[in-house]
UniProtKB/TrEMBL annotation:
Protein's organism: Janthinobacterium violaceinigrum
Protein name per the record: Uncharacterized protein
Amino acid sequence: MAQEQAAAPGDPASQEMQQIVDVQSTRDPDLRPYRTMLKGLDAYADHQRLAPGAPLRFMLIPATPKARLDGVTLHLSADNLSIPVPLAADGGFTLTRDKTAYDANADLVSNKRRATLRWRADIHTPGLPQNVRRLGDLRLECEIRWAVEQDELSFVRRNLFRLAGGPCHSSLIHVPYPVFRKLLAVQARSGERTMDIRVTEDRQRYVPPLHDGNWDDNTLLTLTYAEDGNMAGAAPAAPMKGALVQ
């Protein structure tokens, strides 16, 4: 899966005509086939039991921490076809099944240059605080990403992941989840049990136990963010072993 870096999003452009001009005038735009993205919708339906109360949403995130989403637009685009995809201020969007776009083999196109944006599934069970993630939600996000992105991997790497059980089910493959602020700690809790969750060295990603059946889908992960002044007292992250999926 593609490497991710967190960044604070901005507001999308608001005028439809400007959106169309932006898409058509940008060289080497960011592309993803619509039919490929539909595999994410299929994965959501197949694995919805992991987060039965959570809607399916996608997020656009900038590829670099200093980048912003100001002026970003999104379309389903093909020859003689341009269907706008509404983009929320935080970069969120939803996709529906559109026969016209499917038959036209449309691409999901932004008005930014290729590789300047990344996407991820965004699954959140309603009612949880902003700094709390449910493990089943994270597992469902992983299933959606794997369904969409596996065909982009090299033949060797894709089959190695499959032999290992897939990135969402193997202890050999670690899937970091990005955040928009530096982390001090992440703790998992299920009933009376707790466990400290590994945080990456840059303090902007954490690695939940997706594969570990000892932690059920209702396990809650509490993310504690650190101000810069508190980072000196934070313990260094443990080294990560095995194949790392970023």
